[in-house]
Amino acid sequence: MMTNRQALQRLKADIQLRGLSRNTLDSYTTHVGIFLNHFKKPIEKLNEMDVRSFLGHLIVEKKLSPGTVNVYSASIRFFFAVTLNRTMNYLQIPRLKRPKKLPEILTRNEVAELISQTTNAKHKALLLMAYGSGLRVSELASLKTTDIDSASMRVLVRGGKGQKDRYTLLPESALFALRDYWRKYRPKSSDGYIFPGIKNVGHITTSAVARAIKEALAKTAIQKSVSPHTLRHCFATHLLEDGLSLLQIKALLGHASISSTTIYLHLANTTNGITSPADNMPQKFVDCPL
């Protein structure tokens, strides 16, 4: 009989054999571990009805978001199909439909206000890189000195989502902020990280990046929820407003599909200079009282 610990070790090995990311490894092992601990019975006796019961528990009692429940579902499906080598009727374990809500973004003036309120040189460099290069927070945290190409003004993003490398923009303002931070902090990372973690071990955590943004936001009058990913959305939206094509933005963001990039068509202010047909009606109809 396989213990929970043995099962999780095997799950870890299955993920590593497929070359999946560290984030996937941590996510799958954590969520499957919670699933296994929820039931007080041998793994061999768990079935799709238990999975349904557990997902229902997450939805009704824990009130988790559809996105979070779907991560649990994907983790458990992988565990059963790969680690346990057991077939299941996945029609009995449907994915939750996620509401298509547009993300909240900042105006250019609000981005400028947020960054201007950041007096800490390290935090300013983080915020300018997040907005100016459109990086995911994990990509920002794990940047290395060798990733910065000041000659061509590009940033090499290594092992992004899907383990794909790409280049994105390096703004002059961000390069200036990086150099200022480097002069003041003189970070010493044996692994070459630009933003080392505590005592120069590893790199800065994603939660530390989020805290830096939260501290800056508290000093502004902005009444919006802002996260590191908000600045990535702002990067893409403002580029689209400036005339960049969706294909160019897709490449800079590292999206696997153009469908992920089309959301910025709904966020960008593309109505400037466009006249509504209501304003082009014959004047005699417009002047008539309604």
TrEMBL record:
InterPro entries annotated for this entry?
CB, DNA_brk_join_enz, Integrase-like_cat_sf, Integrase_catalytic, Integrase_recombinase_N, Integrase_SAM-like_N, Tyrosine_recombinase_XerCD
User: Which keywords describe this protein according to UniProt?
Assistant: DNA integration, DNA recombination, DNA-binding
> What PROSITE patterns does the entry give?
CB (PS51900), TYR_RECOMBINASE (PS51898)
Q: Which Gene3D superfamilies match?
A: 1.10.150.130, Intergrase catalytic core
Any one GO MF term held by the record is: DNA binding
The Tyr recombinase domain, residue ranges: 101-279
The UniProt record lists the Core-binding (CB) domain at 1-84
A biological process (GO) of this protein is: DNA integration
Q: What does this protein do?
A: Site-specific tyrosine recombinase, which acts by catalyzing the cutting and rejoining of the recombining DNA molecules.
Q: Which family does it belong to?
A: Belongs to the 'phage' integrase family.
Protein's recorded name: Tyrosine recombinase XerD
Q: Give the organism the record lists.
A: Pelotomaculum schinkii
